[in-house]
Amino acid sequence: TQLLEQSPQFLSIQEGENLTVYCNSSSVFSSLQWYRQEPGEGPVLLVTVVTGGEVKKLKRLTFQFGDARKDSSLHITAAQTGDTGLYLCAGARYGGSQGNLIFGKGTKLSVKP
Amino acid sequence: EPEVTQTPSHQVTQMGQEVILRCVPISNHLYFYWYRQILGQKVEFLVSFYNNEISEKSEIFDDQFSVERPDGSNFTLKIRSTKLEDSAMYFCASRERASQPQHFGDGTRLSIL
Known about the structure:
- The complex is a heterodimer of chains A (113) and B (113).
- By secondary structure, chain A is mostly beta strands.
- Chain A has strands at 5-7, 10-14, 19-24, 29-37, 44-49, 55-58, 61-65, 71-76, 85-93, 101-103, 107-112.
- In chain A, strands 2, 4, 5, 9, 10 and 11 form a six-stranded mixed sheet that branches. A five-stranded antiparallel sheet of chain A has the order 1-3-8-7-6, with no helix packed on it.
- In chain A, a hairpin with a 5-residue loop joins strand 7 (61-65) and strand 8 (71-76).
- Chain B has 113 residues and is mostly beta strands.
- In chain B, a hairpin with a 6-residue loop joins strand 7 and strand 8.
- The mean pLDDT of chain B is 94.
- Chains A and B meet through strand 4, strand 5 and strand 10 of A and strand 4, strand 5, strand 9 and strand 10 of B.
């Protein structure tokens, strides 16, 4: 069974601080998505990373896919209160043709003013 | 921006009854998915659907479950003889092509009494 372990599970920081969320697995993924989920809503796609070693930036968010395509990280610079939410990583199985996603448990981020 | 829509947003049903959860995927998308999220747990894959047939299903998706694309726009999940443990958020997702990420609806909260 493929698992995606996300850490930390909870993170509470002050506005302006930097943070990194990790997503790790012993399995290889063909791609990895990061989603943000608000209470009562579905996951909203932030980014997809496909190539080992790939780095993508979305304003203050930097996403990296590990060289071996087994892990990924999300780094937020100068966090703002609007960044508060649940961040999910989800991997598409390598060799899986239909792309069903395996999700991590999520990191619940709270940014305090 | 086009989005995946799900109805109803909340469904309350007596144990043993049948429920149908409805989804309208994004119009030009070809791959369709159902996931569920039990309260406090991670999002889990149920089934993928392509070219009018199930392409992959998880061990959760047993004979109690079925999916259908009755017309060109709707994608439904039927749960026969619901059980208490079927209570969860059910998310529909779709994507345009195999290389594209999945986009999620806001989910249906299913409560079995």
